[in-house]
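Need residues for this backbone.
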């Protein structure tokens, strides 16, 4: 019997190396862990996880997740502060549905995750991009904007940001949480890379401030376990959780992904999630170092700061139109993501995002060599 190639490979032309792809490689997907966990789950002979499920998410799963987060974050996490989602994107889309209306103003970082801009566009939201530096969002720039405009929502990626790899400082995190309460906007923190630091621990997540009622932390198993699970969570204050639980989508459809929740609960309680994250860190740490060395050797004109976590290098090629470079690169069987995709104001034309998550060292080397040939 033959099996089709994975969808991601089908979508790539034969021989193409897509260094813009922010997916885990297939050899890093935890097939055996999930097989064992599913067997344990079915062995319980309790079919409850095949029902619609509680709107907030299964209580046993949330308890297991809260215990994992408490140890990982270094502060206690209440299971009742967690709401189970079908991934971070689904959580963000639900927040936009419930807490914004078409025409509302929202603030994002410059640069920001390019696909999230499409979610905001789907909801008819007006986007204003705010300045960032090596410590993440420039909070002073936000304060200046708040004097003249009141956003409904501010979206940030505080840790190992996609695409820049930057991490918001602890001081700025605290100030952001204060501003959200003071100016009554929803601060949405996309924290999916928080556990993927390769050299040192990042500051405490913005989830630590969820109790103030204006901070929501989004997270997902897509980066730390398997994206195909379509499973994530958000952490927020009780009143906001109640608003989510009472919405029409969940009233009709029940909880999000109770089946995957039950299987992942087995993984968490058996120590498999923590072990998986450590294995990912070891692999990604090595790939990051390899891409760094290869960039210095093959693309010496590139200006960048090596990331300390996450998936991405954010590089500037002065005087190079990255959109045009992408067209040339594709002709040489390599792909990138040009910086303009990540701009809410049509800028960043000479930047590009490169990922080290999907390919091992030989493919990273070959892809960067092809890119260097384009630049030559």
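Answer:
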């Amino acid at each position: 019997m033959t099996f089709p190639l994975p969808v991601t490979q089908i979508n790539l032309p034969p021989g193409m190396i897509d260094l813009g792809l922010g997916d885990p490689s297939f050899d890093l997907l935890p097939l055996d862990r999930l097989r064992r966990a599913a067997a344990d789950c079915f062995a319980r002979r309790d079919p409850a996880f095949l029902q619609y499920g509680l709107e907030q998410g299964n209580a046993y799963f949330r308890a297991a997740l809260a215990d994992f987060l408490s140890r990982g974050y270094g502060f206690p996490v209440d299971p009742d502060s967690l709401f189970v989602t079908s991934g971070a994107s689904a959580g963000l889309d639900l927040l936009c549905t419930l807490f914004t209306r078409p025409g509302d103003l929202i603030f994002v970082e410059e640069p920001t995750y390019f696909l999230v801009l499409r979610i905001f566009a789907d909801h008819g939201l007006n986007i204003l991009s705010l300045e960032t530096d090596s410590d993440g969002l420039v909070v002073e720039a936000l304060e200046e904007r708040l004097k003249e405009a009141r956003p409904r929502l501010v979206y940030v990626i505080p840790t190992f940001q996609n695409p820049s790899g930057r991490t918001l400082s602890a001081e700025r995190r605290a100030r952001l949480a204060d501003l959200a309460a003071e100016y009554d906007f929803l601060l949405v923190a996309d924290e999916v890379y928080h556990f993927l630091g390769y050299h040192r621990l990042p500051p405490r997540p913005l989830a630590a401030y969820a109790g103030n009622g204006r901070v929501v932390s989004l997270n997902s198993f897509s980066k730390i376990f398997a994206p195909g699970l379509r499973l994530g969570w958000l952490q927020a204050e009780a009143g906001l959780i109640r608003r989510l639980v009472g919405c029409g989508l969940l009233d009709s459809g029940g909880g999000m992904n109770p089946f995957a929740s039950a299987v992942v609960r087995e993984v968490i309680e058996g120590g498999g999630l923590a072990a998986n994250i450590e294995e990912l860190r070891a692999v990604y740490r090595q790939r990051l170092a390899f891409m760094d060395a290869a960039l210095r050797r093959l693309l010496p004109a590139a200006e960048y700061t090596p990331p300390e976590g996450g998936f991405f290098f954010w590089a500037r090629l002065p005087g190079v139109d990255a959109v045009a470079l992408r067209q040339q690169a594709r002709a040489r069987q390599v792909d990138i993501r040009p910086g303009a995709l990540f701009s809410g104001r049509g800028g960043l034309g000479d930047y590009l995002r490169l990922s080290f998550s999907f390919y091992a060292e030989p493919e990273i080397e070959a892809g960067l060599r092809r890119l260097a040939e384009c630049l030559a």
